[in-house]
Amino acid sequence: MSDFTVPTQVQILQQTSQLKALMTIIRAKDTPRADFIFYADRIIRLLVEEGLNHLPVVDKHVTTPTGVEYTGIDFKGRICGVSIMRAGEAMEQGLRDCCRSVRIGKILIQRDEETAQPKLYYAKLPKDIASRYVLLLDPMLATGGSAIQAVQVLLDHNVAEDKIIFLNLISAPEGISAFVAKYPKIKIVTGEIDGGLDTHKYIVPGVGDFGCRCVGTG
Ligand code: URA
Where is the Phosphoribosyltransferase domain (predicted)? Predict the structure, then answer.
């Protein structure tokens, strides 16, 4: 990431020693599947908590058991999650852990073998999605191709661009640049920005294939 200027739309998680230790575990090639899932979940919860910080709030006053008023805040809008299948589904539990009974939609985009272009195969979204803030879930932002296509699906369902927050554990400068150029109003919350992509479009150093690591085939 040496000469990459991080766009203002991108919020990198605070680089604490906790986060670095979690990243070290999930990046190690010999980490067993169960540990990979457990520690990736911990990072996902941090991403969700940071994503929620970008929602609008209103003042809220409550009275504590001491009888004294506390001046706090409440979230103004409602949220939902949308996972980009299949790897994004691994982020659903982390979202549920932070937001009880949150609605979660799914989008499946795959490469069309004939055209080599990303193609929409499936979309199931909450009916009232246009009135919600959307936390878009995909663990790895590599080229940005699937994420860009997934956002188009959300826009086609009348979700406003500035009501989408894209969460991912690890991103590549190439993906960030492509995504931000297309959707400048969308906030990206990411755990770390890596050096770039290899010839197979994997993020390096990365974690390898995130989906395969979750099912134990990678
Ligand atoms: N998807 C993955 O699972 N890993 C990468 O490095 C890039 C895309």
Answer: 15-217
